[in-house]
Amino acid sequence: xxxxxxxxxxxxxxxxxDASLFDVRDIAHALxxxxxxxxxxxxxxxxxxxxxxxxxxxxxRGFPTRVVLACLLHDASEAYMSDVPRPFKHAxxxxxxxxxxxxxxxxxKFLGSSLSExxxxxxxxxxxxxxxxxxxxLLGETPAGEAPNLKIELDYTVQPFEKVEAQYLKxxxxxSQ
Length: 177
Description:
Layout: E1 4-5, E2 11-12, H1 24-33, H2 47-60, H3 65-73, H4 78-81, H5 86-89, H6 93-111, H7 117-139, H8 161-175
Antiparallel strand pairs: 1-2
Helix pairs in contact: 1-8, 2-3, 2-7, 2-8, 3-6, 3-7, 3-8
């Protein structure tokens, strides 16, 4: 079999992606069930929750709606490819290339075009700022550097996946109008 069957029943081949098969319901569902840190955390915290936090933080910082939506979608490729921890990912150039291609296609489908360099930088800033707190809270590590000042109040309470999925979809709906 050269495809995965998505939550909505689509047959999707991550090695030969077809953008017409991307569905935000599949993304929200899969990310709400995918644990941050490859599961090596003190308590379950989903990639979906992380993406929601990124989008809400970007919104409160006054970033353009397009960037806020990009923050919500920045890990959407993981719904189709799974997550690979950053240190290992850097040793897998073909994986990184496939992931970048998939994410580019996702941005084109849901944002109408790929991100500009400036938009990519803004998404990375938000992702890295939230990663700081994810490492601190979920792993008990003290990341290097100063703690970023966040506009949102983080909540690492374990949430039912259905709640995270619904929140992701509601936020997507609001931002994409």
